Structure formats: structure tokens, C-alpha cells
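ZP: hey, is the flavin-adenine dinucleotide complex queued? I don't see it on the tracker
AM: it wasn't, my bad. submitting now with these inputs:
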Amino acid sequence: MSDVTIIGGGIIGVCTAIALQNEGFSVELVDRGIATEGASYGNCGLLAVGEVVPISKPGVITKIPKWLLDPESPLFVRPKEMITQMPWLLRFLWSGRRKRVLEIAKAMAPLTHRAEDDYKALFAQVGISDNLVPAENIMAFNSKADYEADQFSWDLRRQHGFNHRFLTGEELRSLEPALDGPISCGVLLEGWLQFSDPGLVQQRLTKFYVSRGGKLRTASVERIETDGKKAVAVHLAGGERLQVRRLAICAGAWSGKLARNLGIKVPIAALQGYHHHLPKPRVKLNRAVLYANGGFVLTPMESGLRIGGTIEVAGLDPRPNFERANIIARKAVGILPGLDISGGQQWMGPRPFMPDTLPVIDRAPNHDNVVLAFGHGQVGMTLGATTGRIVSDLIAGRTPGLDLSPYRSTRF
Ligand SMILES: Cc1cc2nc3c(=O)[nH]c(=O)nc-3n(C[C@H](O)[C@H](O)[C@H](O)COP(=O)(O)OP(=O)(O)OC[C@H]3O[C@@H](n4cnc5c(N)ncnc54)[C@H](O)[C@@H]3O)c2cc1C
């Protein structure tokens, strides 16, 4: 039996596995093995350090009816989910009141402030330092008024030490000559970097973990068995029972069902995102561009150009609606003339989302050998290395160097 069993081998699981190995623990990582299904494979690859302001914030509620009526908007709720996800949606909107948003940003900032240093240390250890690309991201707007409309978020980011620099159209095009169309200005998001390719980063970290003797088991965990005080085993599809000494639940959007085995009810939703990935885009970007008016991100990666984004409330394992990916691909042509979107690979995957956008990083209440690490929303790629270190602190019995109370599983 390994010292620690981890359920989920996405970015959170694999970073946790390596951090635990560094502490001298033997580790077994259990993943269903369909790496491309997890959010860590298909995300936009931003080290989004300043993304401390939640999606639900003052003013958003008034935009929702327009978004819901527009099939091309960045947010879409499948009609059936309107009812089943209503409790989550109400909590999400309730988290968007001003006072709570200020608390959320304050709680998110200590995590994202550490992200770059934690990844730099991890990537240096693994020998993949060049997988963190030092090109700062840009956010592009159709008009200056669009930029100014979200002054609340800009001020809040700045208050927490995340600065940006306004770019005129000319300055923007000198950095990114390929951008055109309705874009008239932008901002340089200082300190926001990007990964060379999130799926490849995840693969390389996993390979490193295995090369150091880490066990990797391809299996689906159906249920966690407890004796009321501790988790004692996980039951795998196919009937096998795997005894556990300590357990970390890092199963992304699928974590809610596993947590329920421990009597913990967490309001986690799967907010599906899409990408359209172009191995041969025929245009060149030097850095990731977040197109505010389109609700998508363009990221130049090792394996091509990724157009990613959109939020679809469609449940946990829905059938993909790739028209969502087509929509963002068509919009991308509007700002990148010459972009060839034919032959793109399309993907859908779930952001593990808590209503307040904050992750759960916590010891399981009533089961002291279990740690919970999931629900990282739109910043899970950013927070992989940091979360791994915090979880290893908890399992090693150390007090992590920050207050974990905002990330408690019982906060709702
Ligand atoms: C379109 C899109 C763009 C994004 N862009 C960014 C970005 O630019 N920057 C950023 O920081 N974040 C971004 N995110 C968010 C980020 O991708 C996620 O928060 C992060 O990947 C979550 O990582 P995870 O390890 O928790 O989950 P996942 O990557 O989903 O991994 C969970 C793993 O658990 C496994 N699993 C689940 N249940 C079981 C079970 N019962 N038994 C065994 N295995 C199981 C799954 O197979 C999966 O491999 C984006 C997300 C999307 C969808």
C-alpha cells in the first residue's frame, strides 16, 4: 500500500503527486486514464495570476438575460440544466454581490501570487523550465469604453498587486501585428504568463512522477469506503478494492460524487468549455490574447494556435455541442484575418466550479486521512503547483504558509 493515494491525474493531481514525492511519500495516482477529457488537457494555458475577480460580480446579473437569449454569447445554459442547476446558479449569482466579491478576491490573491514561483521551482526540478513562456498576456477590446466598463475589476486587481498597462491600438498592433478587425485597444496584463502547451505540461509532469517510482493506475474510482473516521479503501470499476493509508481527492469536476461518500456535500458544477485547436493556423501571435468582446482566448502553443473559452452549463458528462467551438473559431477569424480554421481539432471539457470561484483545499471534515483539492474554476492550471505544495504541507502535518479558511469545503 502506498503512503498516499490520489484520485485524479489532472494538473492538480499530478502536481500534488510530485510535491508528495518530494516529501518522501510513496504515491499512487489513480485516474480513469482518459487524459484528454480533463480540463487540464484542453484549457487556454494562461498563468492567469491576476484572475482574482470572480465571474459573478456586480453588474453581471443584468447581462444574463441577454446572454441567455443570444446563442453566440459566451455563456449558454442548456434548457434542461436551467432547472437542475438552479440551486447552483442562484448561489453563483449570490456570490456576485460586492461585499462577497471583495472577500473572494482577497482570498484568491495569496494563491495566485505564489503561482509563478511555485511553477518555476517545479519546472526547474522536472527540467521543463521552458514550458512556462515569459510572454505577458494581452486583453483586447473593441473600444476604450468596453475596457472602462469593468473598472471595478481593474481596480480590484490593482488593489491586490496585479497591474496592467493600457495599450492604444497602435501599441497593441506593434506587439501583435496580426490582430485586426474591430479591435481598437487593449491592456498588457502584467505578470500573466502562459504555458507552452497545457496537455503536454501535464504529460511531462506525469512522466517525471512515474520516472521517480510513482505508481499510475488506470482505473475509475466508483466509491470510497470509510470506517466512519478514516477512508480505508477505494473501490474501482471492475470490482477491485484498493486499500488506502491517506487519500487526496483531486478529481476536478467529478469530485462532488466522491466527496459525498465521505458525507460532504459540496456545490460543485461542471462549467463546460470548448476549444478549436489549429496545428497550422497560418497567422502568428506572439502571446496569448484574451478577446474581451468575444469571450474567448487565443493562445499560441507548441502544437499550434488554440482558440478556447465559452461557458456552457450542460451537466457533468454531456454530449458535446461543437457548435460552441465553431462559434469562437468564426469569431476569431474576425480579429485575425488570414486565420485558417479548417482542420481544427475540437474539444470540450469541464471547469470544476464552486459558486464563489474559490477552490476547495481542505482536510475532509470527519475523515482526518483525506485531503480535498478541487473546484479551481477558471484558474486550475494557474494554481496546480501551488495547490500541490499546500496539499503536501497538509499531508506532511505542516501548517501551510497561508490561511486556508476561505477554501473550506463546508463554507456553503
Ligand atoms: C476552455 C477552458 C479554458 C481554461 N483556461 C484556463 C487557463 O487559461 N488558465 C487556468 O489557470 N485555468 C484554465 N482553465 C481551468 C483549468 O483547466 C481547470 O481548473 C483545471 O485544469 C482543473 O484541474 P483538475 O486537475 O482539478 O481537473 P481535471 O484536469 O479535469 O482532472 C481531473 C482528473 O480526474 C479524473 N477522474 C475524475 N473522476 C475520477 C474517478 N472517479 N476515478 C478516477 N479518475 C477520475 C479525470 O479523468 C481527470 O483526468 C480552463 C478550463 C477550460 C475548460
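AM: back. The domain at 4-407 is CATH 3.50.50.60 (FAD/NAD(P)-binding domain).
ZP: great, adding it to the tracker
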